[in-house]
Design goal:
With 322 residues, the chain is an alpha/beta fold. Helices cover 46% and strands 19% of the residues.
Length: 322
């Protein structure tokens, strides 16, 4: 009978053969849950559902979207943080649930609690209004707010999201007072905007671009230092006289729980590079108001997320203080 040391060596050798197969070629071994930490119908949900179809094709398994909304994306993020790190539970992470909420709220997690896999897209925040709203530009909105005795009611898609931060920064730069009407995501806010229950708000451009195109809503300006290539006719809020230097750019990325096995990360990152290089996928996303990321590796996306945390820290500290 082999000695204990020989049995241990044999087990290690077998594990060396089995492990790459278990975490690499055999992955995924079952359907993947793709958590979208926002309600169905939101901009991130649309991105997630389009990506789920493509990932399913490349991985040979079903990718099922699960909406876990609430608390500026932190409920869904917390669920993924607790998930088994085997690659079968992933998330569409965003600047909001990965950077903003952990800084502004007591979310119970940090960006280091997730494994970055690939950046998916860049997106813009837009200041948008119901057609009945009397202002047709940021300067007109600022003038209206300055003449009003009451704070301007501003629809907000969450308590700790860049869209809301953008509205606050705009108000601060213009010297006007606003009161945020906070919704549990972009979809319910857009519903109220379309119905005229709230007249103006800040929201992801790809949530409302179809409504802007058909005239059901009007864009007052993109909250960025550059025009959005998916809607180049919409000016930035900084092009007028009342506001300068305000930005609230958005992004999404594919992430998983911390400590995902390297072969799983490599498999997912390779699939993402192929998806992001597909001209049809890129065109569809651009038409929907989302700017696809360039195909890159997980390490590059990880550095990007950490850089965003550093870049946004001073801005978010100001918001947190308020």
């Amino acid at each position: 009978m082999p000695s204990f040391s020989r049995r241990k060596a044999l087990a290690a050798a077998l594990l060396g053969v089995i492990a790459p197969h278990a975490f690499g070629q055999a992955y995924p071994a079952k359907p993947i849950i793709l958590v979208v930490p926002y309600p169905a119908g939101a901009a991130v949900d649309n991105i997630g559902r389009a990506l789920a179809v493509e990932l399913g094709k490349h991985l040979g398994q079903s990718v099922v979207v699960e909406n876990v909304g609430g608390a500026s994306g932190t409920i869904g993020a917390a669920k993924v943080r607790r998930a088994m790190p085997d690659g079968h539970t992933l998330m569409i992470g965003t600047v909001n649930d990965m950077v903003v909420a952990p800084t502004v709220l007591k979310s119970g997690y940090a960006v280091g609690d997730f494994t970055p896999i690939a950046k998916i897209s860049s997106n813009s925040t837009v200041l948008v209004a119901h057609p009945s709203f009397p202002a047709n530009s940021v300067d007109e909105l600022v003038d209206l707010a300055r003449r009003s005795k009451e704070p301007l009611l501003m629809g907000a898609t969450g308590a700790a999201v860049m869209q809301t931060v953008g509205g606050m920064l705009l108000a601060d730069a213009a010297g006007i007072k606003i009161t945020n009407v906070v919704y549990k995501g972009g979809a319910p806010m857009v519903t109220d905007l379309l119905a005229g229950h709230v007249k103006v708000g800040t929201v992801a451009l790809n949530s409302v671009l179809p409504h802007i195109r058909d005239g059901r809503l009007k864009a007052l300006g993109v909250i960025s230092n550059r025009r959005d290539p998916t809607a180049p006719d919409i000016p930035t809020v900084n092009e007028g006289k009342a506001v300068k230097g305000v930005e609230a750019d958005l992004w999404t990325g594919l992430v998983g729980p911390a400590n995902l096995p390297a072969p799983v990360v490599l498999r997912l990152a390779a699939a993402m590079r192929e998806i992001l290089a597909n001209p049809q996928y890129r065109e569809a996303q651009l038409n929907a108001g989302s700017i696809p990321a360039e195909p890159e590796g997980a390490t590059t996306f990880g550095r990007y997320v950490m850089g965003e945390q550093t870049r946004l820290a001073p801005m978010l500290a100001m918001v947190k203080a308020e």
